[in-house]
């Protein structure tokens, strides 16, 4: 059973409503995210790195376009360090969960992946929903708490407890041993 | 746009792990559930009442069998008052969300239903997940807080705030005016 | 990898539009269907027998009700010999394919089933669509051609060739060796 | 209710198994495809043009990359005239049907589209499966028979009859009046 790192919604212009509340938490979590990304990439082809990202504007399945827009935005300093490389997979999502109306479940199955490590944003929204949708599909979920960013600290804390208690997730941190097997 | 009342997981033997923690909350919420059920039934064919319930044992899509098992269990006093009548629809689910691998979305579409009122259990689990999956599908969600039962009060409280803030749900109570339009 | 026999739409009142054209073919295919059903049941718990059937009338997930309606209909002679027994699984479907908005994929996964043998009706409709949806999900499909019934012989013949050529199905007959492994 | 033109699998390198059998039919159907594409584009924002295309190689949701690969292939003469423009939507699919594990159903809903005109390839495979999956979702389907390409003429003919008879599709031609309302 293989593991994938899933990077959620980090190719972002931060122009949405709650961005001001979110940004400080993203800055805090960036080192944790970079650390798990670095650890995953070091594993080479043993670990897939999969970006799952909201679409902006019209639906064109064009990750070059999405990346360019985010890098041209006011918060490119939060995008640039996490940008996909040539080995990254990339899935565009329409709604909150990384699984809803996306090919992700199919891709994981094809790559023999039974466990996903989630990083990115927002802890009490997309990360929570994705952990649930993974659990419903009998996938194992690990969430390094210092590699996810939130809008509301108290809801994020409740979300992490829900993942741990009700979704069988392993809530750990970015330096945990064995994060990628 | 029509409204449906969705009764979640109340045809139940309460033999699962957390039942002891859940039961007092079910007893507290039972009057609220009965009140919304009564209000929905009074509306006649204007409001569909849809039971969505976990399957027990082998998958036989047999609501008679499920109901009999629950009524024969030790907590029939919590099942009997809420039992489906001949006008109720009934959907069997395999996992937590009322939408996952069930025909519910299709049924709602066929009946022109764009808004669901959720009652039943568990607030911080199936109710939360179902509210999310409804929101993702652009359905309006109303949750009467005195008609849902929880295992952990603090997680239930966080779940209701998540529904209100992040899923556009109307968190209200069982006596609210206009609950069924 | 386990095998299941899937019996499609045989709990039926035959009141739909094309019933007159369908009935002679059902009578022809009945012995083949009974033969595969008998072979599957002989295997005991090694082979799951799963009925997947259209719902009639209101959605009540009630297989007793569906069966009673079909047995009370004018063609009970085509229903009675194929009726589910206490070991059968039963899934209600809303539309043509056995997979669309049903828990079937989930159930097959939980039972470790990677191969399905399809019997029932209609060859060039539900059987074809179900073979396709199984193939898309990387399930192996076997269709005994003497155990499926059609409305239009020429379309049924084309459908079987499509299944064989484009969906990797094994089109065989009800007496084939190794039908259930 | 709006209409979309869906262009299926025309961004293609034609390196798959049956390409030799498919190519003559693609050449025959190219003028019909160009005609419907031109008619759709003339309608401006009234008609969405949506490319739904197989992914080649690793999953990167990158339509620039897919297009470049196809234009660099040996059959760029069949790709170039049909290339997406800046107004086209683009959905990447993993398997045969345009709906399976893609955001297409969601996109159509968001754009208020209730009717799709299908062109592209392969008539007796992806086009057939997509017509079925559209019909199951209660979408109207139109197929101009001179704008779809096949591998086997007899199966394509059966497929078109199935679409017409069993999936309520309007099988017409690329010059038909009212193709885009």
UniProtKB/TrEMBL annotation, chains A, B, C, D:
The EC number(s) this enzyme carries: 3.-.-.-
Primary enzyme class: hydrolase
Source species, domain of life: Bacteria
Chloroplast as UniProt keyword: no
Keywords for the protein's UniProt record, in alphabetical order: Hydrolase
Alphabetical list of CDD domains matching this protein: cysteine_hydrolases
PANTHER family in alphabetical order: ISOCHORISMATASE-LIKE DOMAIN-CONTAINING PROTEIN (PTHR43540:SF6), PEROXYUREIDOACRYLATE/UREIDOACRYLATE AMIDOHYDROLASE-RELATED (PTHR43540)
Protein name per UniProt: Isochorismatase family cysteine hydrolase
Organism (species): Streptomyces chrestomyceticus
């Amino acid at each position: 059973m293989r593991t994938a790192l899933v990077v959620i919604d980090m190719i972002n212009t931060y122009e949405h409503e709650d961005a001001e509340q979110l940004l400080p938490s993203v800055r805090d979590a960036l080192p944790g995210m970079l650390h798990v990304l670095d650890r995953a990439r070091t594993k080479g082809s043993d670990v897939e790195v999969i970006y799952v990202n909201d679409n902006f504007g019209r639906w064109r399945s064009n990750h070059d376009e999405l990346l360019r827009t985010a890098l041209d935005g006011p918060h490119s300093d939060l995008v640039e360090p996490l940008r996909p490389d040539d080995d990254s997979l990339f899935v565009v999502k329409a709604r909150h969960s990384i699984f809803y109306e996306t090919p992700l479940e199919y891709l994981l199955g094809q790559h023999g992946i039974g466990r996903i490590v989630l990083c990115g944003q927002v802890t009490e929204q997309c990360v929570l929903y994705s952990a649930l949708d993974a659990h419903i599909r009998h996938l194992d979920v690990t969430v390094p708490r210092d590699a996810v960013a939130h809008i509301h600290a108290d809801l994020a804390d409740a979300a992490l407890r829900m993942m741990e208690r009700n979704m069988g997730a392993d809530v750990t941190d970015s330096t945990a041993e064995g994060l990628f097997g």
